[in-house]
Amino acid sequence: MKVTRLAIPDVVLIEPKVFGDARGFFYESFNAEAFRAATGIDLEFVQDNHSRSTKGVLRGLHYQLPPHAQGKLVRVVRGAVFDVAVDIRASSPSFGKWVGAELTEENRHQLWVPPGFAHGFLVLSDTADFLYKTTEYYAATHERCIAWNDPTLAVHWPQSDGTPQLSGKDQQGLPFVRAEVFS
Ligand SMILES: Cc1cn([C@H]2C[C@H](O)[C@@H](COP(=O)(O)OP(=O)(O)O[C@H]3O[C@@H](C)C(=O)[C@@H](O)[C@H]3O)O2)c(=O)[nH]c1=O
């Protein structure tokens, strides 16, 4: 497993070791002990999620407030997305900054998005199957959404020719300046 800390070092890119042979491939998509040894981060996941989206769909920027804040280990098993994590921890030196990575079926990269970050992704392929593990359960009452195109955050979404396809909820995403953040 190769671990790279991104420009916001709490966000970690993971490149698993893949064993290919005549049958296909095998890799450990998560191993708590190996993850801890490589990153120093001790994780206990409680929920696994799978979403499927078509090209041009954008989901985000989502987070849950404490006490239901979620860390997410995200990956793509079909297609390709541009994945984004925004630091919304008021006391952080990178508050309001974002990092992004392309996660694809081919590169098998994963992103660790810690609690205290808003998260979203744009689908670049015809279809994308997006899988993620979370450290806390879904809590609808505590979920929040910041607008994907907030001018203060200025996330640079790639290949965005026109407006992405958004859920009704995501069309109501708040401006960053009005969003509840982590103290
Ligand atoms: C996220 C989630 C949704 N749901 C339900 C609520 C709703 O009826 C339906 C679709 O939910 P959403 O529109 O919120 O799904 P989606 O827009 O895919 O939400 C996800 O987006 C990405 C970017 C994240 O970071 C995730 O944490 C999550 O917020 O699924 C659950 O039952 N459990 C869950 O954990």
Can you give me a brief rundown of this structure?
With 183 residues, the chain is mainly beta.
**Could you state the order of secondary-structure elements as H and E?**
EEEEHEEEEEEEEEH
CATH structural architecture: Sandwich
* CA-CA gap between termini: 33 Å
Average the pLDDT over all residues and give the rounded result. Answer: 97
Q: List ligands, each type once.
A: dtdp-4-keto-L-rhamnose
Quaternary structure of the protein: single chain
Instruction: Estimate percent helicity.
Output: under 10%
Give unreliable regions as ranges: none
Total count of domains: 1
Shape: globular
* CATH level 4 superfamily: Jelly Rolls
Q: Specify Rg, calculated over alpha carbons.
A: 16 Å
Binned strand content: 35-45%
Secondary structure tally: strands: 13
| Count of helix runs | 2
Structure characteristics:
single chain; five-stranded antiparallel β-sheet; mainly beta; binds dtdp-4-keto-L-rhamnose; 7% helix; six-stranded antiparallel β-sheet; 183 residues; Jelly Rolls
What does this structure look like?
Strand 1 and strand 2 form a beta hairpin. Helix content is 7%, strand content 40%. It contains two helices and 13 strands. The chain has a single domain, classed as Jelly Rolls (Sandwich), CATH 2.60.120. The structure holds dtdp-4-keto-L-rhamnose (TDO). The site of dtdp-4-keto-L-rhamnose has 12 residues, from strand 5, strand 6 and strand 11. It is an enzyme of class 5 (isomerase).
SSE topology:
Elements: E1 2-5, E2 12-15, E3 19-21, E4 24-26, H1 32-39, E5 47-54, E6 58-64, E7 72-78, E8 80-87, E9 98-104, E10 110-113, E11 117-123, E12 127-134, E13 143-145, H2 168-171
Antiparallel strand pairs: 1-2, 2-10, 3-4, 5-12, 6-11, 6-13, 7-10, 7-12, 8-9, 8-11
The structure holds dtdp-4-keto-L-rhamnose.
Dtdp-4-keto-L-rhamnose binds at residues 49, 51, 59-60, 62, 72, 119-121, 138, 167, 169.
